[in-house]
Amino acid sequence: MRKFAAYLFIAAGVLIILYPKASQWYYDRQGDQLMAEWEEELEAGGTAQSQYDGLTDLFADMGNGEDVFDGDAIDESEASASLEPEASAVESIEPTATSGDAQSNAPSPTTTANTSKKSQQNVIARIKIPSIKLNLPVLEGATEKNLRAAAAHLKETAGFGEVGNAAVAAHRMRAKGKLFNRLNEVKKGDKVTIETKQGTYTYTVTGTSIVEPSDVSVLNYNNRDKKLTLITCDPVVDPTHRLIVHAEMSG
Q: Is the preceding omega at residue 235 within 30 degrees of 0, hence cis?
């Protein structure tokens, strides 16, 4: 009996040690599968403010920077994702307009689930930042499930490559190089590429900032510029603020 109990304690200790690695592997695998689905698709041919406000709870709930495993996050049968064309334009919402900025109608990509084989996590784009070796699928909607394995486009912000402010959020993790973990290394002048079925759009970083979670001015836009805003939590552990990368597309 004592021998059995000893084996049981040893097994429990091994499980505790392996748990972080297993959860990290799990979500890495989900991201890889989403990216593979995106590449296959290419070969084959709420409001913005409420989404932003919701990031506060999402970032806090997702382990305060730890690689937390949630069995409900991504089911094995839902590992792949599909890419759908952008839908018709919807009215974009200006949370706190500044002087000289005007509200405009900016299209937002939406996705439709393929109920036969595809999961509801439909890849709408891929984001690449060569300077930090970032290559991630982008899903539609900043939900906890989407942020587990990918970046997420905030609903009702501008569509990629369009006039307005397209916002993309991703989690930061303790594991080096995961998701937006290295976003703090991005510098002014770095390039950010967004690949969609409609085209490839290259933005140039104009600056970075650290703001309070309540500062929705980062979503501001006008009726002239094509902006991209990248959003993540800061610091990595026990985040209290948000790290913002501002970028614009010329032409």
A: yes
Please name which of 160, 83, 74, 152 lies closest in space to residue 123, comparing C-alpha atoms: 83
**Residue ranges of domains in the chain:** 2-249
Given 153, 171, 241, 246, the catalytic residue = 171
Check if 171 is active-site. yes
Distance of CA 4 to the CA centre of its chain: 46
For residues 202 and 207, give the distance between their C-alpha atoms in angstroms, rounded to a whole number: 15
pLDDT score, position 53: 80
**For residue 62, how far is the Cα from the chain centroid?**
13
Q: What is the mean pLDDT of each run of 10 residues along the chain (251 residues)?
A: 67 68 63 61 59 79 47 33 35 36 42 42 91 96 90 95 97 81 96 96 98 94 96 92 96 68
Enumerate the H helices of the chain as residue ranges: 2-44, 48-61, 144-149
Rounded-to-integer distance, Cα 194 and Cα 6, Å? 54
Give the type of residue at 149: A
Extended strands (E) in 52-157: 123-129, 134-140, 151-153
Range 2-249: architecture per CATH: Beta Barrel (2.40)
The residues with which 242 forms a beta bridge, in sequence order, are: 211, 233
Per DSSP, the three-state class of 36 is helix
- Evaluate whether 104 touches 164 at the Cβ level (below 8 Å): yes
Say whether 153 is catalytic.
no
Q: Which residue has the tokens 């593979």?
A: 36
Written as six digits, the tokens of 139 are 């899903």
